[in-house]
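pasting for the record
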Amino acid sequence: MSDFPFDSYIASIPDYPEPGVVFKDITPLFADATALEHAIDEIAEAFRSYNITKVIGPEARGFMVGVPVALKLGAGFVPARKPGKLPRKTISMSYELEYGTDTLEIHEDALTPEDRVLIIDDLIATGGTVCAAGKLVHETGAQLIGFGCILELAFLHPRAALAELGELAFKSLVVVE
């Protein structure tokens, strides 16, 4: 467990985006260089011994956390984008949202069976987005190692959703029960 007070850099915004919801805003953490550096270092350190070769970050805030974690691990970065955003041949995975569906895509040649993959996002809520990214990893034959995030909304049970992908490593810096 960290000694750094990550939770003090997360603002709670009541009744946003609708009444009864308390939005967890992590942009204050991104705005503070020391807090951001600690977050990136701590997530990367949790996966240092896994020999990660690629980090996937879902669009768009997964890019902001995933790229520096990849650099710290000496790994490449693979963007998981919304449909139509990548210029070469892609593979895609659709997933359920609270009100509909969405899709993520990666380049067809982004991963190889030799890759050891970590999926990083800023926040994991229901797990749907990172689970879809995990299914893309499985589709390529690469080895999925685990998931990392700054904020985990545990009351939405994301780990239960991710369990369908196997027994994998998981690191979150702040857990909201």
